[in-house]
Request: fold
Amino acid sequence: MTSDHFEQVFEQYRNQGENTPVSNLNQESIVAVRKNEDGDLIAFKTDNGRELDYMTALDEAKQGKLAHVDVFHKYGRDILRSEPDGIKANNLDNLPTF
Reply:
């Protein structure tokens, strides 16, 4: 295979999300977090004022109900994280606490 083939395939992969809406109108955004004494995220507050424990937020993210977050598998379990967009201010760890 030529290197052009690899470039074309990568471009197709990169362009997959360009036609996908950034967020669904029914999605809520996380605007604040609660941390335990170790600094671990344990709860989340949405822009609608709902307070979600970690497992509920994880389930809702998997269902597509929360905007701008991803669920990935690490350390043998699912983990909630903000979408990697290069903006540190909107990372879950950097949001205000409640």
Residues 32 and 83 are 15 Å apart (CA to CA). The mean pLDDT is 88. The radius of gyration is 16 Å.
